[in-house]
Amino acid sequence: MMCDVRLQENAHKHMEAHRKTHVHTLQAMDYRQRILACVPADRASLFQPLMTCYLTDRTSPEEVSAAQEAGVVAFKLYPAGLLCCSRGGRQCCTKST
Length: 97
Hints:
Strand content: 5-15%
Number of domains: 1
Radius of gyration: 16 Å
Structural class: mainly alpha
């Protein structure tokens, strides 16, 4: 029961941190480490956070490659202004660069 309380407390802290979008691979990997630090040792083998990054007009092909190599599983695409916190999203979904 104590582990569950600890997980709930830590989950709340990380939900606050998650409100900041992860644009770069290093941000996502840092966040992954903070999540894993909260997982009790006896449950560590049962939990693997799947990390994503935020696709913007400034995301380079090199960043996508680096993210894949680091273990990022996907990029989130939000058209700019469509949702809350999406100001930095893609201006045009048909843009190729």
